[in-house]
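Sample entry was shown:

___
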Amino acid sequence: MKKYISLAFMAIALSFGFVSCSVDTNEEPGGTNVEKMAGRWNVTVDVVDESGNVTDKDPYNIGTFTMMTYNTADNNINEMWLDDNSSFWNFKMKVDVKYDERTFSCSERNYDAAGTGTAVVTNGKVLENAAKNLHGMPNDSIVFDIKFSDGGETIYRISGQRYTGFKE
């Protein structure tokens, strides 16, 4: 009986040798078209006036929260998603990107799936190596201003740095 079981296992093992995946592919590995702007960010929110001066630090006592920027489904170099992961105003919206300048903005756009609110994003930038992480190493930074249609005249500045995996 052991002999038949051993032969069966050997036959199965050999059959895997004849079945393989094709190593030929037309796809080149790589990132997305907005990969240097895409990421997970640890950010804070402040209120700013029309001149960009901070008038209220952390108005809702949220502290630091995580938000995301990522490519669109069609991997367009001129667009990316801005998503606060329901941590602040529950926004998820596409913004226009100037990738070579690492800037982003958008005129009035829906910021939620229900289409009940709009927002305007201005002064958006991803600054390479402009921040320092917990260990003093250079880290990318993000900053942008956002004004919500259901938030009155208040302008919020969201700023922070790329998530490193360490508690910052």
The longest helix spans residues 2-18. The mean pLDDT is 89. Residues 93 and 111 are 5 Å apart (CA to CA). The beta strands are 39-48, 54-57, 65-71, 79-83, 92-98, 103-110, 118-132, 138-148, 155-162.
